[in-house]
Design goal:
Layout: H1 9-19, H2 24-41, H3 45-49, H4 52-56, E1 61-70, E2 76-87, E3 93-99, H5 105-122, E4 128-133, H6 142-156, E5 165-168, H7 175-189, H8 209-226, E6 236-240, H9 244-255, E7 259-260, E8 262-265, E9 268-271, H10 278-289, H11 298-301, E10 306-309, E11 320-323, H12 332-340, E12 345-347, H13 356-365, E13 368-370, H14 372-375, H15 377-392, H16 398-420, H17 429-448
Parallel strand pairs: 3-4, 3-5, 6-7, 6-11, 11-12, 12-13
Antiparallel strand pairs: 1-2, 2-4, 8-9, 9-10
Helix pairs in contact: 1-2, 2-5, 2-17, 5-15, 5-17, 6-7, 8-9, 8-15, 8-16, 9-10, 12-13, 15-16, 16-17
The structure holds glutamic acid.
């Protein structure tokens, strides 16, 4: 009789904690998935015999490296870089690169773990990975950012490849940084391949990639509402963040007749009770990206809006909420305030923005709650489509891609229903996403035997 790795849930989690000391984000992400998987595999002997859960909770490898660069004053600066190659059972490793001072091995391991199930949910052949550095792009000149990206890629290039591992953007890494890294990859290797996604349109990028994560999170929200015969028309929407995901989510909310009333950054949030229009959103995009400004400047630009320093927007009454900033930005008390104020649905545009307490509060209140691995998969899905276009050496039109993104988000919603429908009109989207994503990866791993 084979030894089972999960005699009980607590025993399994104790092992995860012991093997990953000082990695709270990774432990949190594993726990959130394992809570659901335990139920699902309870009577499935093959998964136990093959130690699938234990294997899934261990990255294939973590590459850690030094990144040296020279700042504008001629000082030598040293940062740490990583690539976590979590799982390639269903396709090449795929996932973004994050540049932010909060980046640690724990954060990247959690992101790579989540990415694995997210990518499986899209239905496209992509494994899971994530990379990044504790480099802080804030306040750096463009030339400093270029030198950092080049140095980062000078190590990373040996670990990636169009059929091996395909990085993209994430927090602190947008089109400009992808351009610098792609240029350096091409310079070192001499190969022009689809090794990165989120590229510029001139050199193999895909239309609608920048919009895809935010639009996708709103499509998923619309799918959840439609399942209950509702829509976004007139819905007051609270959004956090003011980057690529948040601004495009706000834009899609407006397209679908809703009313976004907040955006935020690390300094606080703005509340515009009249609602953000497409013009106002365009101003935010330009202000945050080209001018690298602060969200608080919004209130000088648009009358009637107020800035709340050092606060998050979760206590503003709303119908629906989209946390689109970063992990653990919405805590248990915030979730209870949202519920008390009448919020009916939450769609995670960021990765793990709601902590475990918040997720449990939403589940207890039985409101519609879409976890990031389902709701924000639109970004990586269009990255997958960018890989297809690169391989085929062709480009799809905007209309074709918009339709594919909508279909993919609808497909993810359907996959969540398969394992998440609890009857009586209630869907546990967390459970649905976890089991559906896990099953695809686990079954591929079973097919390979012990590797
Ligand atoms: N960083 C994004 C995510 O969290 C996109 C990754 C990608 O396009 O590979 O899913």
């Amino acid at each position: 009789m084979a030894v089972s790795d999960h005699v009980d849930f607590n025993g399994f989690m104790e092992g995860v904690k012991r093997r990953n000391p000082y990695q709270p984000e990774f432990v949190q992400a594993v726990q959130e998935v394992a809570e659901d998987i335990f139920d699902f595999i309870g009577d499935k002997e093959e998964y136990h015999e093959q130690q699938i859960l234990r294997r899934v909770a261990e990255p294939d490898r973590v590459v850690s490296f030094r990144v040296c660069w020279e700042d504008d004053q001629g000082n030598i600066r040293v940062q740490r870089g990583w690539r976590v190659q979590n799982n390639n059972a269903i396709g090449p490793y795929k996932g973004g690169i994050r540049f932010h001072p909060s980046v640690t091995e724990s954060v990247l391991k959690f992101l790579a773990f989540e990415q694995t199930f997210k990518n499986a949910l899209t239905g496209l052949p992509m494994g899971g990975g994530k990379g990044g550095s504790n480099f802080n792009p804030k306040g750096k000149s463009v030339r400093e950012i270029m030198r950092f990206c080049q140095s980062f890629m000078t190590e990373l290039y040996r670990h990636i490849g169009a059929d091996v591992d395909v990085p993209a953007g994430d927090i602190g890494v947008g089109g400009r940084e992808i351009g610098f890294m792609f240029g350096q990859y091409k310079r070192i290797t001499g190969h022009f391949t689809g090794v990165l996604t989120g590229k510029g349109l001139e050199y193999g990028g895909s239309l609608i990639r920048p919009e895809a994560t935010g639009y996708g999170a709103v499509y998923f929200l619309a799918n959840m509402l439609a399942a209950r015969d509702m829509n976004l028309e007139g819905k007051i929407t609270v959004i956090s963040g003011s980057g690529n995901v948040a601004t495009h989510a706000a834009e899609k909310i407006v397209h679908l007749g809703g009313k976004p009333v907040t955006l935020s950054d690390s300094g606080g949030f703005i509340h515009d009770p009249e609602g953000l229009t497409l013009e106002k959103i365009d101003w935010v995009k330009a202000h945050k990206t080209h001018r690298r400004g602060r969200i608080q400047d919004y209130v000088e630009q648009f009358k009637g809006a107020r800035f709340h320093e050092g606060k998050t927007p979760w206590h503003v009454p709303c119908d629906v909420a989209l946390p689109c900033a970063t992990q653990n930005e919405l805590l248990g008390d915030d979730a209870r305030a949202l519920v008390a104020n009448g919020c009916i649905a939450v769609s995670e545009g960021a990765n793990m923005p709601c902590d475990l307490d918040a997720v449990h509060a939403f589940k207890a209140a039985k409101i519609m709650f879409a976890p990031g691995k389902a709701a924000n998969a639109g970004g990586v899905a269009v990255s997958g489509l960018e890989m297809s276009q690169n391989s085929a050496r062709r480009s799809w039109s905007e209309g074709e891609l918009q339709q594919m993104l909508k279909d993919i988000m609808h497909g993810i919603h359907q996959r969540c229903l398969t394992y998440g429908d609890r009857g009586g009109g209630y869907v546990d989207y967390v459970k649905g996403a976890n089991i559906s994503g896990f099953k695809k990866v686990a079954d591929a791993m079973l097919a390979f035997g012990v590797v």
